[in-house]
Amino acid sequence: MRWLSLCVAAIATASMLWTTACTSSTTIKTVCPQTLSFPVALIYPAASATNVPVNAGTIIVQGGFTGRDVSVVVMSLSPPSSLVVQAPLGPPPTPLPTPLSTPAILARYPLASIAMPQLVVNTEYSVVMVENFAASPVCPAISQPLGGFITQP
Fold first, then answer.
1. For the segment 64-84, what is each residue's pLDDT rounded down to a tens digit?
2. pLDDT of residue 25
3. Where would you tag: which of 32, 38, 117, 131 has the fewest CB atoms within 10 A of its CB?
């Protein structure tokens, strides 16, 4: 008589669902997330802001990213499009710049920032949050646009 043992376990990690099916020969299947698993918003400059100073110097985000392997990417959208900066999150600047655009739904979440170099006048920029999955090299990084802004003429 052949014994077949079957077990199914779902383990939810902070940002990923791993599904494991076990039989006499173990099979592991990883289900990778398709979107960020936490709320996040661009706070400064506000999404869709215009007339942003070229020396703004910082990007501030707010969300549930604490303890996750995330970074923020800023791209210039004016032809030719190019990477301006990609950096991991750090503490927000003190004092905070104004105006901050804080959605009420995110009020209980922390702020974080990245430093930004001098920008180009009258240029459109895009800000994207990227989450990496060091715990599972099988899953690719995922990204989510947070919005964009245009610098002063």
1. 888 888 899 999 998 788 999
2. 59
3. 117
- 7 within domain boundaries: no
Give the tokens for residue 117: 């170099």
Instruction: Give the 3-state secondary structure of 58-116.
Output: EEEEEECCCCCCEEEEEEECCCCCEEEEEEECECCCCCCCCCCCCCHHHCCCCEEEEEC
Number of domains in the chain: 1
- Residue 78: count of CB within 10 angstroms of its CB: 14
Instruction: Give 133's pLDDT tier (boundaries 50, 70, 90).
Output: confident
Q: Is residue 137 part of a domain?
A: yes
Task: Please check whether residue 27 lies inside any domain of the structure.
Answer: no
C-alpha distances out from residue 119 to 57, 65, 77, 92, Å: 8, 26, 12, 19
Q: Is the pTM of this model over 0.70?
A: yes
* Residue 80, domain extent: 40-151
Would 58 be classed as within a structural domain? yes
Q: Looking at residue 104, which CATH number applies to its domain?
A: 2.60.40.1220
Mean pLDDT of the residues in the chain: 80
Q: DSSP for 10-30?
A: EEE-SS-EEEEEESSS-EEEE
Does the pLDDT of residue 118 top 60, yes or no?
Answer: yes
